[in-house]
Amino acid sequence: MLGSKERRQLEFFVCGSLRDLVPDDHILARVDRVLDLSWLRGEVAEAYAADMGRPGIDPEAALRLMFAGFLLGIVHDRRLMREAQVNLAIRWFTGYGLHERFAGPLVAHAHPAAVGPGAVPAHLPAHRQGLLRRRDRQGRSRAR
Fold it and tell me: Which of 11, 12, 83, 104 is the most exposed place for a label (fewest CB within 10 A)?
């Protein structure tokens, strides 16, 4: 008998954690087991204004998003943001639920001049670039 599957899904309900949907051998799950970013908030706190502007992106979520892009070979911020909207592993790794929207591209993290001098600690973007250079020297191709 020929079966059929209704593709239109009106609502999505997950009982449990997104972590349950990410395989243990996925690269983001393996990295999460050893990644400790508890130091990050204190390191960047002075770059955030307490009483003006919109609420900033959580620094740990932003750095985890950059790591996910690096580990999955997504080097362009706009492409990473599009992938993060639909990829459950990236959502779980960054701490975003299914109902939460990601902010715009991470331009401020990639280009500190876009938000003014000293707004982003200088060693954070440099560290990201260092990871990309190291990856290139190992002979891995970068996604375009």
Answer: 11
Give 32's contacts (C-beta < 8 A, 6+ positions apart).
93
Q: What integer best gives the mean pLDDT of the chain?
A: 74
pLDDT at 41: 86
Cα-only R_g, the chain: 18
Residue 56 and residue 48 in contact, taking contact as beta carbons nearer than 8 Å? yes
Residue 73 lies in a domain: yes
Rounded distance, CA 135 to CA 127, Å?
Answer: 12
Phi-psi bin for 143: left (phi > 0), alpha (psi -120 to 50), beta? beta
pTM above 0.90, yes or no: no
Please report where in the chains the tokens 């299914």 appear, as a residue.
98
> What is the domain count for the chain?
1
Mean pLDDT of 104-126: 49
